[in-house]
Amino acid sequence: MKTIHACAAFAATFALGSTALGGVLQLESFENYSVGSGAFEDLNGESHFLENYDDHTVVGDNWSVYFTNTGGTGFTDGDYHGVTDYTGGGISDAGGYTDGIQGYQMSDTDGMVTMTFDAVDGATGLSLDLFVRSTGWESSDLIKITFGDTVLLDTTGLDIDDAAGSLGITEGAWTTLSGAGSGELVIEFASNSSTETAAFDNIQWTGVPAPGALALLGLAGLASRRRRR
């Protein structure tokens, strides 16, 4: 009987420690989606919510993407955008994707795209891996990432080539951005060149223990101490 109780206490402690104590509540690494072949195409150049095209994944189970027309051609000319396993543009030199063999790429949007992830219940923190290609960025290009009211990155009005260091990112390498907050994760991106590429991977929503979880952990620890006496 003591062995059974000991196992139960350990299981409770392990389960709470892996999910409640700042653990990962939800992970998006884009591994379970089709990458498609060739370029993504959308003949609707007006502002609208994007939809998946053929086997290209642009929107997923827990995120949507809205295209805002800013006077450009958008995706009517076909562009490499969405879930991908492509590792060119320096991604292979940076070690490939950070969680698996796929990630999400944004490039040559000729307009603004806004990628919005649903809020995750209980999440109080978030981290994601960002790759910014080393190329000729311009001040009109944009990468902005917010988690609720927390701004993780904002290049508005900045030339990424000049401002990368002050923004805490390195072109041609993966950078992990993280912050506390809650609510929706929103990624905004604008560029007008196929070489102006950003990629995302390994998005993790994390949480903190509820009071009841802490109490249960305390009971598990107390039971463990009593058995060691």
What does this protein structure show overall?
- The protein is an alpha+beta fold and 229 residues long.
- The chain folds into two domains: 1-21 and 209-229; 25-207, Jelly Rolls, CATH 2.60.120.
- 19% of the residues lie in helices and 31% in strands.
- It contains three helices and twelve strands, in the order αβββββββββαβββα.
- The strands form two sheets. Strands 1, 4, 5, 7, 10 and 12 form a six-stranded antiparallel sheet that branches.
- β8 (142-147) and β9 form a beta hairpin.
- α1 (2-19) packs antiparallel against α3.
- The two termini are 17 Å apart.
- Residues 1-21, 212-217 and 219-229 have low confidence and may be disordered.
Count of separate DSSP helical elements: 3
Helix-and-strand structural type: alpha+beta
Overall shape: globular
> Strand-and-helix sequence, N→C?
HEEEEEEEEEHEEEH
CATH topology of the largest domain: Jelly Rolls
**Low-pLDDT residue spans:** 1-21, 212-217, 219-229
Beta-strand level of the residues, as a percent range?
A: 25-35%
The count of DSSP E runs of length 2 or more, i.e. the number of strands, is 12
Roughly how many Å apart are the termini?
A: 17 Å
Query: Any guess at the CATH architecture of the largest domain?
Result: Sandwich
Helix content range: 10-25%
Number of domains: 2
Reported for the largest beta sheet, the result is: 6 strands, antiparallel
What's the average pLDDT? 86
CATH class of the largest domain equals Mainly Beta
